[in-house]
Amino acid sequence: MGDLCRSQVYRELVSVSLGEETTLVFQVRIHGRGGQGVVTAAELLAQAAFDEGRHAQAFPSFGSERTGAPVVAFCRIADKEIRVREPIMAPDAVIVQDETLLRAVDVFAGLQSTGYVLINSMRTFDELGLGEYAAVGDRFITVPATQLAMQHLGRPVPNAVLLGAFAALTKVVSLKSVNDAIRDRFSAKLADGNCAAATAAYEFVAQQLEGSARV
Amino acid sequence: MFKQVEGSRAVAEAVAACRPEVICAYPISPQTHIVEGLSRIVKEGKLGTCEFVNVESEFAAMSVAIGASATGARTYTATASQGLLYMVEAVYNASGLGLPIVMTVANRAIGAPINIWNDHSDSMSQRDSGWIQIFAETNQEAADLHVQAFRIAEELSLPVMVCMDGFILTHASERVDIPEQEQVDSFLKPYVPRQVLDPANPVSIGAMVGPEAFTEVRYMAHMKTLSALELIPQVAKDFEEIFHRDSGGLIRGYHCEGAETVVIALGSVLGTIKDVIDEQRENGVSIGALGIISYRPFPFDAVRAALKDAKRVVIIEKALSVGIGGVVAQDIRHALSGLEIHQYTVIAGLGGRPITKASLDDLFNKAVVDDIRGLTFLDLDQELVDAEMKREAGQS
Amino acid sequence: MSTTPVKFYQVGSFAVGNRLLPAAAGSVQSDMERTNALTSGHRACQGCGEALGARYAMDAAMRAANDQVIAVNATGCLEVFSTPYPESSWRIAWLHSLFGNAPAVATGVAAALRAKGRTEVRVIGQGGDGATVDIGFGPLSGMFERNDDVLYICYDNEAYMNTGVQRSGATPAAARTATTQAVGPEPGNVFGQGKNVPRIAMAHEIPYVATATVADLRDLEAKVARAMEFRGARYLHVLVPCPLGWGSQSCDTVKIARLATQSGLFPVFEAERGEVVSSTPIRQRVQVEEYLKLQGRYSHLFSPKRRDDVIDKLQAAADRNIKRYNLLPEEEGDL
After folding, report:
1. Identity of the residue in B71, B90, B202 whose CB atom sits nearest the CB atom of C98
2. DSSP per-residue string spanning C173-209
3. Are B61 and B55 in contact (CB under 8 A)?
4. Which of A10, A35, A7 is nearest to A107 (CA)?
5. Coil, strand, or helix at residue A144?
6. Is B233 in the same domain as B260?
7. Interval C239-289: pLDDT, tens
8. How far is the C-alpha of C246 from the C-alpha of B345, rounded, in Å?
9. pLDDT tens sequence across A127-184
């Protein structure tokens, strides 16, 4: 699993300011299993960034396409053209769509010291045995995305839902952009459910952050 | 119009805007999304009378393209890797018959061992086939090069291969300015064949040519291909006038002028290279990059002019000439013959292995002080190799 | 007054057409206005069955299509002897690409014509048995499966003749070729199950499949005309003896083709959408031996020792065809 402190981490500090042009890139790595829409999630995130007038690059890590196999997708967001094409090894944010991956894959590898982690789970970081990460503060959060998806969508597909949570957590994209991207991509009925779930996830996270807000 | 779109989709839309009349393709990773996209566009009736033929093999795909193009239809197909090899007989036939077919090659490694990921071995295997080969650096350029390709092909009456890195470009979602129909219509005139199958004016195409004339036929093909060295930049210039962006051409330098060390590459890896170049230059290193867009015909003069003042060149190659080394390196060597320039070949990215900034940074650091060998395999797992060789030795 | 129906046979020199028939009922070849698609000057061998068949077939196609035909030719004898650069014997729009892709190239031509709204122009694909039965088989099947609007004609001389008489998937059992020599305990080609492309074409359920030979040229013309009445994939398989490869006299080409049909070894029939709709009955049945002994490629069956075991097996194959296609309707079940 990897200890954050021991992971190889680039020591550059990355900061993101919404609405200000920077020359920096925000890198997101999404982990999931084949069939969970991991690539779609990366593409939706890219679409959301595009809608906000930014540059975005989304691509899968090209493993064998078996349902259930661990898959990774990447998304870079920046204010100018993104030229680099390597896999994201020092992410600013990690999204984990399937908590069973925590035992199988080093999902935190390379995570920036100021990085965000969003895990699809009903349990807390403590309950997941990742208490030491949660201690870092309000950049690490778990969201019951599958449950929210079941509730609003009727299917246990957490990918778009987690983007709503991501928007609240990182503020790299707005909820509106996420929902617009969802509407753009899915049929009306599916879009409705996904937007509702994404919004619910957004509110869930916003509430949590408020609750643990520091001065 | 700007869209956030997968590379394959951008290419499909760009090709559709070129008003093809016959599209025929056999699916192979990683080209599938391109032909699926076009199939959908045709089926929705957006391409008028365009015929989309689902063929039973890549050999059939190129053959159907030959028949269609010879009948005067603007024709398109796409393939990669094993599929390209399977159609090779027809690939040579198409260029020999002077048919302006445009084909996307979604660059992928060739087996054995079977590997579906990116490298340039497929296109490189066809460098002598008489096709024009152009390499896209980004998905924007991939879309644009297809538009330019139809123009180049039809003006020369030669087929054109547009090469784009499989998965890395085809499956990456990026911001692309999709060529608008009006723009393409003003750039690309309807296809007027040099010769055509028409009962009204019957001709026999595909005669058997004996020793007494074969050399002359090939010489003329040679000269025609060389004339592309002038046509390609002209087409890129015309493209810029209508589309207002720099796409295509023969080569593209990046801080090349005055650079002591120049890194040469084709395709998408140039993006990563440029980021590293910027960082190195910030640290005072005299280094630049040269992207080769037109690989065939190879722009010897342009390359020589761009590199003549460099001390050394580092060629990042995504293909291996087994037992020899680089493929592009051989062309570079020819371009720079007589000049005192150190040449380093780096085989990288074979079978889709990611080429990372860190590895390139380390490589360039060594290269600029001439601390690398003539031939390097980037990120080679020497331990694994040693263990394998030991195992094989133990077996004998 | 009672009338007696008179059957017109092609007799004597099998002269083209019949001067007693009204012009409209005459053969295409007897027509002064025929295209002469494959004109004189080509380099075929004396007595070449393929040159004969191709000329008849193509002129019939041109007439049926109001001269609107594009032909796609596979590599092989026909292509090689007709287009030695800078000459061409073809007076029609004609394309040669490769050995194994004629059906696919024809598909491409048809697709282009459809895209351009010029479907009055008809497409003919043609090739020898090698190009059709073996190397072009995949594309042929693809063309059938898509029901592309192409009439494909196979001129079957039962081996790769142009390259020196090597065995193809169409080479009959026991025949000598350069790669199935008449040596050893089992001289000549093996007794396999064969590769019956007309039946394979029928299995694709395409609109029209037919067989013909250069022994009955009126029938060949009629079948081409019939095929041209259909749209979609059509297949015509024509037996064309090759004096060189078969080791026969150049003056015996038509005779040998007739013996092939009259022995039952080559059944002549038509099929639509997978069902046989007509077959040409045998007029004067002969034993296979009559057919075999005119050909050097079977000489090892007679000398130095008569191989009755082999001849009997070939006879059995002929008998099977007669039964299967009902080639002797008066003799029901009597073999």
Report:
1. B90
2. TT--BTTB-S-SSS-SS-------HHHHHHHTT-SEE
3. yes
4. A7
5. coil
6. no
7. 999 999 999 999 999 999 999 999 999 999 999 999 999 999 999 999 999
8. 59
9. 998 887 776 668 999 999 999 999 999 999 999 999 999 999 999 999 999 999 999 9
For residue B213, the chain C residue with the least C-alpha distance is: C85
**Whether B67 contacts chain C with CB within 8 A:** yes
> Which two three-digit tokens encode residue B15?
């090709």
Which residue in B59, B65, B205 is closest to C108 by CB distance?
Answer: B65
In this structure, is residue B396 part of a structural domain?
A: no
**Cα–Cα dist C143/A47, whole Å:** 42
> Which residues on neighbouring strands pair with residue A29, listed in sequence order?
A74, A94
Give the start-to-end residue ranges of the domains of chain C. 28-326
Contact between chains at B68 and C108 (C-beta distance less than 8 A):
yes
Distance of alpha carbon C74 from alpha carbon B89, whole angstroms? 13
Which residues of chain C are within 8 Å of residue B64 when distances are taken between CB atoms? 104-105, 107-108, 111
Q: Which residues in chain B have Cβ-Cβ distances shorter than 8 Å to A56?
A: 4, 173-175
Query: Which chain B residues have a beta carbon less than 8 Å from that of A87?
Result: 354, 356
* ipTM over 0.95 threshold: no
Q: Which residues in chain C have Cβ-Cβ distances shorter than 8 Å to B22?
A: 108, 111-112, 115
Point out the domain boundary residue: B189, B215, B243.
B243
Residues of C in contact with B49 (CB under 8 A): 114-117
| Nearest beta carbon to residue B199 from set C68, C104, C108 | C68
Closest CA–CA distance from residue A38 to any residue of chain B (Å): 13
Any idea which of A125-134, B66-75, B152-161 has the lowest mean pLDDT? A125-134
Q: Is C28-326 assigned to CATH 3.90.1170.50?
A: no
C69–chain B Cβ distance below 8 A for any pair: yes
